[in-house]
Write a structure and sequence with these properties.
two-stranded parallel sheet; alpha/beta; Glycerol-3-phosphate (1)-acyltransferase; globular; 7-stranded mixed sheet; about 35% helix; lipid biosynthesis
Length: about 280
């Protein structure tokens, strides 16, 4: 019930000092490009997924980067797979941080039954995109699984929620993933596993506690999250396929513009974006 009703959000938990330490470890920063009207509701599309979506957690599930000060009147709801809530204590912590299920019922509740000024944050690429999380030191192109992701756009139209593109530079840099190019044996196994159970099994490593070569701590690489301008959406209970695709095209264009506008600012001028 709590997964669909909005959880047990606690501003006190979201403001713990440990989240500021987490922010400074990488470090993570949040860039605002436009104001958000608190009389509207929103769906944020977060890109890329990366291995752990660390930027999404820090910016939207905690107050470490001062989201509530930057966007007064906007309540962020980071969404994740329902399976993440099966483990006691871990589940309670996520609910206190305002994290909810990405299930349809949860999104509908957030956008319709909790008043105005709510933002449902969805990591659009999901499990499949995590398999493309390659550090920019090895790959000059960020690959986003987006062309077939129409559900979040349809939900935006049905619920009258404005769409907001979000891009995190450096999200793919905090872990190294084993080479798994499309067509490789490893990639075929990973893809099959993802289709079977719903989440991907990336083979990755980070750093250790006392050495920098190997372990499961993320590398200390900067993550810069840029929140774009809202795309107006007119509520329609039963949108046509053409209406969904038209709005989806606007969203993709806005995301690409956001990427191109800010990549030089974060020192990623040679980085390219591929949407598939």
């Amino acid at each position: 019930m709590f997964l669909f009703a909005g959880g047990r959000r606690s501003y006190w938990v979201r403001s713990w000092r440990i989240w500021r330490w987490f922010r400074d470890y990488f470090p993570i920063r949040l860039i605002k490009t436009a104001n958000l009207d608190p009389t509207k509701n929103y769906i944020f599309g977060y890109h890329p997924h990366g291995i752990a979506s660390a930027g999404a957690f820090c910016n939207f599930a905690t107050e470490a980067t001062n989201f509530s000060e930057l966007f007064p009147g906007i309540v962020p709801h980071l969404l994740t797979l329902e399976g993440q809530f099966y483990c006691p204590f871990h589940r309670e912590l996520m609910l206190f941080c305002g994290i909810n299920s990405v299930a349809k019922e949860s999104i509908v509740n957030i956008l319709n039954y909790k008043g105005k000024g709510n933002a449902a944050i969805i990591v659009i690429g999901g499990a499949q995109e995590a398999l493309d999380a390659v550090p920019s030191t090895f790959e000059s192109t960020v690959r986003l699984k987006l062309n077939s992701r129409l559900g979040f756009v349809r939900m935006a139209i049905i619920n009258g929620a404005y769409l907001v593109p979000v891009f995190s530079f450096g999200e793919n840099d905090i872990f190294y993933q084993a080479p798994n190019s499309i067509g490789s044996i490893l990639r075929k196994i990973q893809t099959g596993f993802t289709k079977l159970v719903g989440f991907s099994p990336p083979v990755f490593h980070g750093r250790g506690v006392f050495q920098y070569s190997y372990g499961f701590l993320p590398y200390r690489k900067p993550i810069t999250t840029v929140i774009g301008s809202p795309i107006p959406v007119v509520r329609k209970p039963d949108p046509s396929e053409s209406e969904v695709r038209e709005l989806h095209a606007k969203y993709v264009t806005a995301l690409k513009e956001l990427f191109e506008t800010h990549k030089k600012e974060v020192g990623a001028e040679k980085l390219e974006l591929e949407v598939y």
